[in-house]
Amino acid sequence: MKLRIEVVAIDSLMVRLFDAIDEANMPWMLAASQRLSAAFGTQLVDLVPSYTTLMVQFAMSPGQARALITQALEGLQPDTGSGGRRHEIPVWYDASVGPELPVLAARSGLGEQEVVRLHSEREYPVFALGFAPGFGFMGLVDERLASPRLSTPRKRVAAGSVGIAERQTAAYPAVSPGGWNLIGRTPVRLFDREREGYSLLQPGDRVRFVAVSHAEFMALGGDDSPLEALA
Amino acid sequence: MTQLRIEASTALCQLQDAGRFGVRHLGVTQGGALDWVAMNWANWLLGNPLGAPVVEVALGGFTVVAEQDCVLALAGADLDARVDDQPQLAWRSFTLAKGQRLSLKQPKHGVRAYIAAPGGFQGGVVLGSCATVTREGLGGLDGHGVALGKGQLLAFAATLPALREVPDALRPSYPHKPVLDLVMGAQIGDFSGMSLFEAFNSDWTLDSRADRMGIRLLGPQLVYQGAPMISEGIALGAVQVPPDGQPIVLLNDRQTIGGYPRLGALTPLALAQLAQCMPGEAVRFRAVVQEEAWRQQQAYLNRWR
After folding, report:
1. Angle formed by the axes of helices A62-72 and A26-40, nearest 10°
2. How confident is the model at residue A194 (pLDDT cuts 50, 70, 90)?
3. What average pLDDT does range A49-70 have in this prediction?
4. How close does chain A come to B290, measured CA to CA in Å?
5. Which tens digit of pLDDT belongs to each residue from A95-105?
């Protein structure tokens, strides 16, 4: 880890901890987030974690903020225990709600069952939330599942759609445009104002997708309307 | 409780306030008034907290009728405001009697006007703010991110504050071709020397592709020579440069993280000025350093202290 502090805006500094996306970054990122939150207290306006960086927005002079960041992160140790909740997210993997499932299966030569097995086998860290409220960027998926984004994004992707882009995976919290390769759908509400904290996922959480049958999906409150119904 | 009934509105007439904070890690954007200076003045005129909920009207097309006698305040762009048929000047509070109509018709100078009411308009507070963010379905009157619509009621406290005006010397002007201060960011050295010269010495024209997420600017093509970036947090006012070399200024409803290189970020005062520029208008950038921009901002905020 090589710490750099960079100017981004009048009241914001970027704390750069790493240069590449790596699961091994996450315990460091969590520890740094916690230390910065504690050090800035009420003078922390916002903290935006991403794969390799933490953007700190503050209510103090930039000089003071820079000094405080340096001080807060001195002797940083990775957070290997406390941080990050674990989630199991049920997914109905099916071509009717995940039209790229057969495409990925054919392109990789693995077959649909093997694609599902590989996708649901790993536990993925949540690297960052972005794009939309509750949208967690997770990864990395098995290299054989890596797929470029669709050349033309869909205008409407159903809420709960589970997709792959390059070696990342995610579930869409709400209906939105989207260019990820869809392979299934979850009945879980990822962003729910009835839930404490609203978002199911937080950066640093760990997620395993669990394959469920159509009947289980429906019993969990899933909506099996085919994607075309939205178009 | 006092109410205004909305008789005409558009998708660009929305309940806004100072925005949402402390929630960016959930992927939730900031939202809030694009011209925060005008919002602050509208609220100041009524003795409200400066970030209290206001109605942001872009370009006009907004009419309300008073259900009871009330006092309102208007600040920001000249959108040809009328009370019934009489012109209503901005930068002051005024009385709207029961049955009288306030309409903001069309842009004459500037783009966005702000209407404030005593104590602030009531809205659906979500994650600490009632700022309307349509894309996220958050805020607004009912909390679900819907713009103001005909037939809806805007409610606020039934007090009648003394009428005031913003002192002439303190009113923002909306000059032709404003110069926008840009805090230089860390990637600025990764643009070609020629691009940097052009960034700060050319006119940049506002494209029609402009909304509350961002405003595209047209001008010389800027060339980024650095390595591809990993997505990272995006600050308000960030001037990002996608591969086509035409910068985009990211505004209140921007996505929270992104991976395009940035020249830096406009200052809050520059953003307030930009919010009053029409597509087709030209702006210029002036490079400033962070610490100096911060001091100027603190000095400017003193006018409300």
Report:
1. 130
2. confident
3. 98
4. 5
5. 999 999 999 99
Residue B204 near residue B216 (C-beta atoms within 8 A): no
Percentage of residues of chain B with pLDDT beyond 70? 100
- Give contacts of A130 with chain B, Cβ < 8 Å: 27, 231, 255-258
All structural domains of chain A with their residue ranges: 4-72, 86-230
Query: B204 pairs with which residues across the strands?
Result: B283
Over 90: is that where the pLDDT of A1 sits?
no
pLDDT, tens only, A158-182: 999 999 999 999 999 999 999 999 9
For residue A170 the two structure tokens come to 């995610």
Into which CATH architecture does domain B179-304 fall?
Beta Barrel (2.40)
CB within 8 Å: A48 and B268: no
Decide if A193 and B126 are in contact by the 8 Å CB cutoff. Answer: yes
Q: How far is B234 from chain A (nearest CA, A)?
A: 8
CA distance A82 to chain B (A): 18
A169-A188-A107 Cα angle (round to 5): 30
Q: Which residues pair with A48 in a beta bridge?
A: A55
pTM for the model? 0.95
Restricting to A residues 74-133, those with a Cβ less than 8 Å away from any Cβ of B are 128-133
The CATH code belonging to domain A86-230 is 2.40.100.10
Query: CA of B125: which chain A residue's CA is closest?
Result: A193
HEC-encoded secondary structure of B153-209: EEEECCCCCCCCECCHHHCCCCCCCCEEEEEECHHHHHECHHHHHHHHHCCEEEEEE
- What is the domain class of A4-72 according to CATH? alpha beta
Q: Give the span between the Cα atoms of B136 and B287, in whole angstroms.
A: 33
**For every residue of A151-200, which 3-state class applies, written as one string?**
CCCEEEECCCEEEEEECEEEECCCCEEECCEEEEECCCCCECCCCCCCEC
Q: Is the pLDDT of residue A139 over 80?
A: yes
Token output for A105: 């299966």
Overall size of chain B counted in residues: 305
ipTM of the prediction: 0.96
Q: How far is A109 from chain B (nearest CA, A)?
A: 30
Nearest CB to B297; choose among A8, A10, A52: A10
Does A67 lie at the interface with B, CB-CB under 8 angstroms?
A: no
Number of residues assigned to chain A: 231
> Which residues are CB-neighbours of A18 under 8 A, at least 6 positions away?
A1, A25, A28, A51, A52
Sites in chain B below the pLDDT cut of 70? none
**In Å, how far are A63, B288, B290 from B295, measured between CA atoms?**
11, 11, 9
